[in-house]
Write a structure and sequence with these properties.
single chain, OMP_bac, 4 helices, membrane
Length: 217
């Protein structure tokens, strides 16, 4: 899905090595990396490498290090930072700032929010995804408990709109609210807090990944 035509976009492509480290804790990113709440990181299996292949030209007695998977990541964000799309080898993630979707401290959709959510639903259909994660996040203002309630309500509202737009019972949704956990920017500035107040929608690229339906919270 392309970003709205009214928004200029910039593209950044980076190479990142995916490493499985067990259960992740809160990630404090530098403002350019995606959030990594539990269950949102996927890895591809390592490639098969023949350590005895003469084409590798290893020195006598040398051995190959374990194979690693390089994941090509493409990030497209409009100039205002209101909408961000990330593509990796395995997943597509859309991040929408809360102000684009909701009034301040509210879980009621803005008038133009449905068009943005419906466009994401179109991309989910195009990728034929059958599992979709909808995660809500807030900044660190106010109590953690209030942020947890608000972020979950917002995620649930976006889920409801996506489900209606998809019109399918073959999609499994995972819906969660994380309050101020997993910020992607510095909470000491309003610009950073604005980026942290967001809803993320993630789904697999171009492959079905399940046949059951339901919503988890």
């Amino acid at each position: 899905m392309a970003l709205p035509p009214r928004s200029a976009a910039t593209t950044l492509t980076a190479l990142a090595v995916l490493v499985a480290l067990g259960l992740p804790g809160p990630a404090y990113a530098d403002g350019t990396d995606p959030s990594v709440p539990p269950g949102s990181v996927t890895t591809s299996p390592p490639p098969s490498v023949d350590a005895t292949s003469p084409g590798l030209k290893l020195a006598d007695g040398a051995t190959l290090a374990p194979a690693k998977v390089l994941d090509i990541k493409s990030v497209v964000e409009d100039l205002g930072g209101e909408e961000r799309r990330e593509d990796t080898n395995s997943d597509v993630t859309f991040a929408l700032q809360a102000e684009v979707l909701f009034p301040k401290d509210s879980s009621k959709l803005n008038p133009d929010a449905r068009a943005r959510i419906d466009a994401i639903a179109d991309e989910i259909k195009a990728q034929k995804a059958t599992t979709v994660r909808v995660f809500g996040f807030t900044d660190n203002l106010g109590s953690y408990a209030h942020g947890l309630t608000l972020s979950k309500k917002r995620a649930e509202i976006v889920h409801d709109e996506l489900a209606a737009a998809l019109g399918s019972t073959d999609v499994t949704f995972e819906v969660r609210g994380y309050s101020e956990d997993y910020p992607i920017a510095d909470n000491t500035s309003e610009q950073g807090r604005r980026k942290n107040r967001r809803v993320e929608v993630t789904f697999p690229r171009g492959a079905s990944s399940g046949t059951s339906s339901g919503t988890q919270s």
